[in-house]
Write a structure and sequence with these properties.
The protein is about 50% helix and about 15% strand. By secondary structure, the chain is an alpha/beta fold. It has one domain: Alpha-Beta Barrel (TIM Barrel), CATH 3.20.20.70. It has an 8-stranded parallel β-barrel with strand order 1-2-3-4-5-6-7-8, surrounded by 8 helices. The radius of gyration is 17 Å and the shape is globular. It binds 1-deoxy-D-xylulose-5-phosphate (DXP) and ligand LD2JLWAY. The site of ligand LD2JLWAY has 12 residues, from strand 8 and helix 10. InterPro entries: Aldolase_TIM, PyrdxlP_synth_PdxJ, Pyridoxine-5'_phos_synth.
Length: about 240
């Protein structure tokens, strides 16, 4: 069984486009849970381009599965997370001008900052995941800072220019998932996964959970959110069958 974390960021993107109170990310999260989501992922960005603090506060009380809060490693976000106490937090890199996440967290370069954040969050009872590129040195650093979970960045795989390049990225993800799993980490994966590229990632036996959002929200425009979630969950389970 491989778990699906549904990222609801881009339901909030549509809401923020006009500053209305619809579509509701809260409603989307509850529908996703009813449709097979094992967790709800939401990224509280520093620029609040989509998810707002209020969304996190409300959902923390309403979710029946798990909240996986994504955030940058900043004092503001770590303090907020320690107050809200999501089940999981995934620490991600952020650049204000980025269109979306561009790569994994550089745990090596920001070792002391990430280590201190991991300690604070763990002491607050929150399970810490680090969003990293599929590289052994970053995985080793994640272990050294005490994170029990990593999320492998699948963006380079998803955005590969040729099928050969995509196959090479897939092999890297496969080998790094096995590397991390053999060293005691829970291995998740995500970013830019969709209905045509998820199966090979879901097939990797060491991967416990996929976090997928943009593609589900996009498909929901045509078939509804419940069906879009169900289809992705089914696709993932079939990959493991
Ligand atoms: C870390 C990651 O890949 C996503 O979970 C992240 O939320 C992407 O950022 P946007 O949702 O703002 O595109
Ligand atoms: N961490 C990846 C995630 O939560 C969803 O990313 P995407 O599917 O919106 O690209």
């Amino acid at each position: 069984m491989i778990a699906l974390g549904v990222n609801i960021d881009h339901v909030a993107t549509l809401r923020q486009a006009r500053g209305t109170d619809y579509p509701s990310p809260i409603k989307a999260a509850l529908v996703a849970e009813e449709s097979g989501a094992d967790a709800i992922t939401l990224h509280l960005r520093e620029d609040r381009r989509h998810i707002q603090e209020e969304d996190v506060i409300i959902l923390r009380e309403r979710l029946k599965t798990r909240m996986n809060l994504e955030s940058a490693v900043t004092e503001e976000m770590i303090s907020f997370a320690c107050r809200i106490k999501p089940h999981d937090i995934c620490l991600v890199p952020e650049r204000r001008e980025e269109l979306t996440t561009e790569g994994g967290l550089d745990v090596i370069r920001h070792f002391d900052q990430v280590s201190a954040a991991c300690k604070r969050l763990t002491e607050a009872g929150i399970r810490v995941s680090l969003f990293v590129d599929a590289r052994a040195d970053q995985i080793d650093a994640a272990i050294r800072v005490g994170a029990p979970v990593i999320e492998l960045h699948t963006g380079h795989y998803a955005d590969a220019a040729t099928s050969e390049a995509q196959q090479a990225e897939l092999e890297t993800i496969r080998s790094m998932a096995a590397y991390a799993f053999s060293r005691g980490l829970q291995v998740n994966a995500g970013h830019s996964l969709h209905y045509q590229n998820t199966t090979p990632i879901a097939f990797i036996p060491e991967i416990t959970e996929l976090n997928i959002g943009h593609a589900i929200v996009a498909r929901a425009l045509f078939i509804g959110f419940a069906q879009a979630v169900r289809e992705m969950k089914t696709l993932m389970q079939e990959a493991r069958a």
